[in-house]
Amino acid sequence: MTLEQDLIVIGAGPAGISAAITASQHGLKVTLIDEAPIAGGQIYRATPQEWTPNTNGSPDQDLDDGNSLRDSLSKSNITHLTNHVVWAVAPGFEVRAVSDSKEIKLTAKKLIVCSGVTERILPFPGWTTPGVIGLAASTNLLKSQQILPSREPVIAGSGPLLYAVANAIIEAGGKPVAIADVGSLFDWVVSLPKLFAAPALLIRGLIWRARIFKARITVLHRHHVARVYGDDKVESIELMPIDANGTPLPKKKNIKIKSTSLIVGHGLIPSLEITRLLKAKHVFRAERGGWIPELDAFQRTSVSGLYVAGDCGGISGAKTAALSGTIAGLQASFDSGMITEKIFQDLYAPTESKRNKAERFGKRMGKLMSIRSGLLEGLTPETIVCRCEDITYGQIMDAVNAGAADCNEVKAWTRGGMGPCQGRTCGETIAEIVTRQVGDRDKAGFFTARVPLRPCTIDALAPVCSYDDIWNSDVAKVATAILPAENTEYKNSKK
Ligand SMILES: Cc1cc2nc3c(=O)[nH]c(=O)nc-3n(C[C@H](O)[C@H](O)[C@H](O)COP(=O)(O)OP(=O)(O)OC[C@H]3O[C@@H](n4cnc5c(N)ncnc54)[C@H](O)[C@@H]3O)c2cc1C
Question: Would you say residue 183 lies in a domain?
Fold first, then answer.
C-alpha cells in the first residue's frame, strides 16, 4: 500500500505532534508515524487507554501536558499511524514502515524527523547482569506500565533523570538505597542561573531534591559504578570516586552497597539513523548529546525538504522540542507555498523567542549529561561492550591496536555494532575508545546507517508469492534470456 502525502513526520513526541499540527493547520496533508501505540513520545508516554492512570492523588504535569497534546492531535486532520516502525527511508522522500507484519510505503516532498533520543549507558564490569536497568528505560516502566523498576535500587549516572527516577520511586512507595551522581554538587550550583530560564522546572527539580533529602537517601557526588557483583542477578554494587573527567581516583576508598538492582544511565544521545541514511551533514557537539544534524534557525538540514525538530536535533528537553516542532511545521508550510512570507514571519518571531528561552534551560541539562571519557577507565578486557554480538573491550582494543582507525573499521573487524540494535547502545562507547587513539570524535566518526533501521521480520517485507510468480517475473525473464545456451538444466526446470 502506498500513501501519498505533502508531509511525513516521523516521531509522535512533543516535537512531532507540534510539527504535524502546525503544518496541518496551514493546509498540508500530513501523516505522523510512531512505533508507540499512543502519541506522546518519551516524556509524555501514557498508560494503555483502558487503564486509569494512578497519580496517587497528586497533580501530574507530564500527564496533563501529554493529554493536551493528544487532544489537539485527535481534533486535527492528521493521519496518525500508531504501532508503525519506520525501517527504511529514501531520498525524495519515501518512508517504509511495518506494523502487524504488514508494510506500508509513504511518499512526500517534505519530511520532518522528530525521532528523539536513545539513552547512553557506558559499560562497566557486570553491567549485563540481570537487575541492571536503564535510567531512562525505567521511566517507561513507571509511566506506561505503572511498575516500580525496583523497590530499593542503587541509582547511578548523570543528569536530571537520576533525581526524577529516585523521586518517582519514592512516590510509588520504594526507597533507593543510594544515588551516585557523576556530576559534583558544584556542577549543579553553577547551572542555577541558566535553570532560572524555566522556573517551574527548576522548582520541580528542587522539590525532588528535598524529597530525596527527607527520605534520608545518601547522594554520592562524583561517583561511578566500579563493578556489579552477582552472576544471574545483582547482589551488590561497588561505587568508586572519580574526578571531573570521570577518571577513577584509586587513592580514595570505594564503597560496596548491597542491593538487588542498579538503575543506571549516562545521558541521552540524539537518534540519527534517519538523517544519516539521508546523508544530511552532522556536527559533533558534546553538550548537545554528541553528533547532531547541522540545522539552521528554521530547523532545515543540509538536505532540501528535510527538517529535524526536538531532541534528535540536540538535547534540549520537551519544551524546546515542542517549539522547534512548531517552527519546522511552519517552515515546511512556507516552503510548500501554503503561507506567505508575512504570515511566516509573524508566526515565527514569537515562537523563536520562546524556543531560545527554553533552550537555555535545556542546553544546560544537556551539558550535565554530556559524556566524560574517564568513565571508560574502569573497563577490563572481559567487559562486554557490544551486547548484541558479545564483543568485549579486549576485542575492540585488539582491533584498535592493530590499526582500526574509525568506528566503521572497528565494526567491520569485530562485528561490534552489527547486531539488531545497530550500535545504538555500544556506538558511543566504541567511538570514545577509538577517539582515545585517533584524537577526536570527528576522526573517530560514527557508524554508517544501514537498513533495516529497526529489527523487522522478512515476512513483513517480502510479498506473498508462489514459484510461478517468480518464474513469470521480469527478473526471471531477463535471467533466462542471458543464461548460456548450454545451461539447459535451469531452462528445462523452468518448463
Ligand atoms: C527512554 C527515555 C525516557 C525518557 N523519559 C523522560 C522523562 O521522564 N522526563 C523527561 O523530561 N525527559 C525524558 N526523556 C527525554 C525526552 O525524550 C525528551 O526531552 C523529549 O521527550 C523530547 O521530545 P521529542 O519529541 O524530541 O522526542 P521523543 O519524545 O523521544 O519522541 C520521539 C518519538 O519518535 C519515535 N520513533 C523514533 N524512531 C522511530 C522509528 N524508527 N519508527 C517509528 N517511531 C520512531 C519514538 O517512538 C518516540 O515516540 C526520556 C528519553 C528516553 C530515551
Answer: yes
Chain-wide mean pLDDT for the chain?
Answer: 92
The residue to mutate among 18, 21, 34, 43, having the most atoms of ligand 1 within 8 angstroms of its beta carbon, is 43
DSSP-derived secondary structure for 445-469 = --PPP-S-SS---HHHHSPP--HHH
* Protein residue whose Cα sits closest to atom 10 of ligand 1: 43
Phi, psi of 384 (to 5 degrees): -70, 135
Residues 28 and 161 in one domain: no
Nearest atom, ligand 1, residue 137 CA: 1
Distance 14 CA to ligand 1 centre (A): 8
On whether both 318 and 197 belong to a single domain, the answer is: no
* CATH number of the structural domain spanning residue 14: 3.50.50.60
pLDDT surpassing 70 at residue 441: yes
Structural domain that includes position 383? 379-455
Atom 6, ligand 1: residue with shortest CA distance? 43
Distance CA 194, CA 190 (A): 8
- Yes or no: say if 138 and 240 are a contact pair by the CB < 8 Å rule: no
**Boundary of a domain, candidates 223, 241, 266:** 266
The proportion of the chain whose per-residue pLDDT surpasses 90, expressed as a percent, equals 77
Confidence of residue 470 (pLDDT cuts 50, 70, 90): confident
Give kind and range of the element (H or E) at residue 137.
Answer: helix 135-144
Q: What is the dihedral of CA 53, 55, 60, 63, to 10 degrees?
A: -10
pTM check: above 0.85: yes
Ligand 1 centre and the CA of 45: distance in Å? 8
